[in-house]
Amino acid sequence: MGSSCLGSIGLRQSSQPFYLDPIARLVAESVAQNATVRAIIRGMDRVVEENRACALSIVDCGLAEYRRVLELQGQLQEQRRAGVIADTVLIVEHPAVITLGARKTANRLLTDAEELARRGIDVVEIRRGGGATAHNPGQLVFYPIVHLQELRLGVNEYVRTLEAIGIELLAGLGVESARRKGFPGLWVGERKIASIGVRVSRSVTCHGMAINIQNDLSIFNLMVPCGLDGVVMTSAQKETGRTYDMEQIKKQLARLLHRYVGRGSSHDPSDMASGDARPTGAREP
Prior knowledge:
With 285 residues, the chain is α+β, with helices and mostly antiparallel strands. It has helices at 20-33, 66-81, 113-118, 148-151, 155-172, 236-240, 246-261; strands spanning 9-13, 37-41, 44-48, 56-63, 87-93, 97-100, 122-125, 133-135, 139-145, 178-180, 183-188, 191-201, 204-212, 232-233. Helix 1 (20-33) runs parallel beside helix 2. The longest helix has 18 residues, at 155-172.
């Protein structure tokens, strides 16, 4: 990926089965011990390397079920609070799932549970900020498990940092996106292309950002995204008509993550592109 500081991710075909619980243990051990580990993710070997000079590990989870990655986040967050591991970011695509956030009034489904089950769409209640949103293949999701106090970031600055990463990533795909006052996430005109929902416990984050690259947007018709009536969701593919290489996008995301939240970063959140400051504890709308 061009630099030893990018937490390189290699791929090799494998016939071994997928077990996520052992992966959670191996990932935690690898980032704690500064080791290289092979994690079996849906038939692919993902080689995850941590570089202590950057104090940031980036793990590509491939396509993985939401509930299992949620459990992994909890394990890593606990270890990060205890100082056992370094800052870590999980990059993932999820099978179809709708997640319901902490703001109950913003959790508005437009179809019943039986119909969602018939379509194979899981529904998960979680403790992040914000309301209902959806994930499915072709959407790029990343979950930073980082210590905000050690990064000298407040929650306001952290949310804006995630937005800045998304803005730059999308610009590289030919999509001009922007913040929208009062609504964390990213917009292309009146259309929403990225959502942010975070939870911070004792200065350590979990959950994160979802950017629509080339996913099936019809899943958003089954709910009111973020509880915003009339909101229209869009994707990079819908805006440009192009098909993207998700692996290349992940590599670019890794570079941006190291630049914005890596310990060697000289990035100053106060120098970010214009956007409204958010109250401490800002969450996805």
